[in-house]
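Regression report. Comparing outputs from two consecutive submissions.

Submission 1:
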Amino acid sequence: MARGVVDHHRQEGPVGLFHERPGIGLFDDVGVRVDGGEAHGVPLHEVVRARIRRGRNHRKGAGCDVFACATAVPPQSCRAFRQRLHCRSSLKNPIKEGRNPMANEHVGMVGPGRMGYAMLKHLIKKGFPVTVTDINPENVKRAEAAGAKSVPGAAALGKACGFVIIAVGFDDEALSVALGTNGLLSAMKPGGVIAVCSTVAPETVQRIEAEAAKSGVDVLDAPICRGGWAADEGSLLALFGAKDEVVKRARPIFSAFSSDIVHVGSVGHGQVAKTMNNMLLWVNGIALMEAGRLAESTGIKLPKLREALLMSSGNSAALEDWDMITFTWALKDMQIVSKMADSKNITMPIAGAIKEMVKDGKAMKQSGRAPDWTGNGKK
């Protein structure tokens, strides 16, 4: 069956595997036709990849723009060979289309580094005024070249902006930026919002919330998932922990660079969700290291084995995205897991072992000794 092109009909309901009706064409299981023509010029396998990379298991909307997978798509491209994917609403999103009614919200950002820089470019593109600060002058210059303004420090940023995103790397940095002598809270006006996008311990963002409340400032616990490529594409997953009114205010801003936003609970719960996600990622990552070594010892070709696993119960996001898994932040992530477990007096021997093993995982990836599951030579 040849790779097709999505025929852009709208149909309510889930979209799943495709089948061929002899003499008629290729259809999915809810009756949306997929044929081999060039009506819209979008190859089906590219649509599949785009849908997968923009988040798995999307919710069903009132209408659907068809994104699905077919039996013609190579199994290494798509977990949905055995899953049905749900599509997002086809109603036009004015923010995604560049017509942003909330663009008068002045957004500040502390730390326009790898992730923050990608996020601010989307914000600027969608019409938000953005001001940044960073201890790295090169990051500031790059942000200014993209259209942002800059100020010298967190206090000046808090004074200038009513909504500030913290995008630093570690807990102590987030605490210093928010609570320090010249931190955001020293200058932010009541009614402001501090959004913590950094991956930190739940108690860190809860501590920031407690102090912010004394100044009439709200906190949005908003760690982001999917990594640098999703930040570049504007398809991040944001995990919100906050009051409903704060979530409502934040949605238009985060929609500029996120294809998915999930409100999981109160402040702290966003970090809980991110930590559990990361824990499961590294469990799978280490398992793939061990499974790959054992499989290689038998002489089997790992790319062929991966092709089969992607259609089976052995599939995982780590296997799908193996070439992009670096283990760079794995130890930090697992240290947060360990800290959470200790605070609750919960024994987690598997998590403890993974915390130690990710050290070797990072070394193996960096040295090229990791199993080459994709055959691309990117270990």
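Submission 2:
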Amino acid sequence: MARIVRALPGYGDIQAGFPVIVDERMAIIEPAFAYLHELATVPGRSHAVETIRTYGEHLHDWFDSLEQSQIAWAGVGEREIAAWRNRMLECPSPHTKRPYARSTINDRVRTVCRFYGWAHQRGWIEDLPFHFIDVRVRHQRPSMLAHLDVRPGVVAANVLTVPEAERLPRALRADQLRRLFSALAPPYDLMASWALVTGMRRKELCALELFQVPETAHLDAGEHPLIGIGLSITKGGVPRTVYPPIRLLDATHRYIDEVRGPLIRRLRRADRSWRAPSALFLTSRGAAVSPARFTAAMAAAFKAAGVVGTGHWLRHCFAMTMLAQLQRQARTTPEINPLKVVQVLLGRRPIASTAIYLRCVEMHAAELEESVAWLYGALIGDG
């Protein structure tokens, strides 16, 4: 049985925690190691640690399947990858005990195909075990925003991927937001507020440090409703700036003074050798809130509030409310490109992934009116 072992610190340019896939004899599976190592270290192509971990998990499952079937990795064709894919369609995940989402299956298939594409370029294999076909994509009826829709009419599709219905994000209504926030305890309620009004990802929220919160006592809320904060730990490592409202920063300072500070003093009284992390958001035990912990807290809050969604929906809500707000502003300030602004604020490189929010705004315009009023009235306006 193939397995993953994590690299320890101190081994050259291999990061601590790097996934090393080994076979049943504990021998390193060299092609998988070389592929992941190149993705993690080659300048200009290096991927985030989380991405490498995900690719490693996908390849581990693939090589484990090959080992159990006694199939050589370099001798597979479309039939073998299709059989692996079909197993995921028919059987639940051994980890979650739930059926695999089709998007998850496609992600895994694409990872394996990218690996074989790399192996083909490096001369490890002679032929690719997959091919692409052209697929025509049917779009919805034209709208006044059709000129901003950058989706192509024909796309190249991997024959091994499975059809999946497009799932458009949906903004949370004001009543849903109220119920959700009432089910969150500190610091998760504050973290959710940051996600909602800045569009920050969980990784970025958990990476916020105390020194990054600017002082606001000398600022006038009318003159400085939004304050720019630079982020360096982001998806893909591309620095960007977020703009939390000054009222959110005021609430953050109250958290620092009334929650974080007393927590640190209590823990230091119990253990004089203990030192507080530099992270802004701490758990009740004084550890930095991890992305997994934030995800779990948000899942519990959504369940308690009776609302369907995940913490990432707060980012979707930000994108849609911001786009709706900018579209209003563009009526009197035509030089504004609402979609481009949202793309920059979200820190997304391809504009196509941002354009999906155009259709969301059109479909849920009435709900967004209420969400915009609640969000910006509570945190920016006079209430």
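Expected: both submissions complete independently.
Actual: both completed, but the second showed a warning that disappeared on reload.
Relevant detail on submission 2: Residues 174-379 form a domain with the hpI Integrase; Chain A fold (CATH 1.10.443.10).
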